[in-house]
TrEMBL record:
SUPFAM superfamilies: Sigma3 and sigma4 domains of RNA polymerase sigma factors (SSF88659). This is Unannotated protein. InterPro entries: RNA_pol_sigma70_r4_t2, RNA_pol_sigma_r3/r4-like, WH-like_DNA-bd_sf. GO terms for biological process: DNA-templated transcription initiation. Pfam families: Sigma70_r4_2. It comes from freshwater metagenome. One of its GO terms (molecular function) is sigma factor activity. Residues 7-57 form the RNA polymerase sigma factor 70 region 4 type domain.
């Protein structure tokens, strides 16, 4: 059986854009609106990435 993955390992495996958005959201505690402005992308796109990324992290970490 493989050892459980760490948060750092799971984040590193994500596509760059998803990793950046999740890092800004959860670690920097930026709002979707702030992230959208910073990255010049639609706020709805940021919200979608946060939702799907959270689900992916949860599944990968076995939570």
């Amino acid at each position: 059986m493989a050892a459980p993955k760490t948060l750092a390992e799971v984040l590193e495996a994500l596509p760059e854009e998803e990793r950046i958005i999740l890092t800004l959201s959860y670690l920097r505690q930026m709002s979707p609106s702030e992230i959208a402005t910073l990255l010049h992308v639609p706020e709805k796109s940021v919200e979608a990435v946060i939702a799907s990324g959270k689900a992916r992290l949860t599944a990968q970490l076995g939570l």
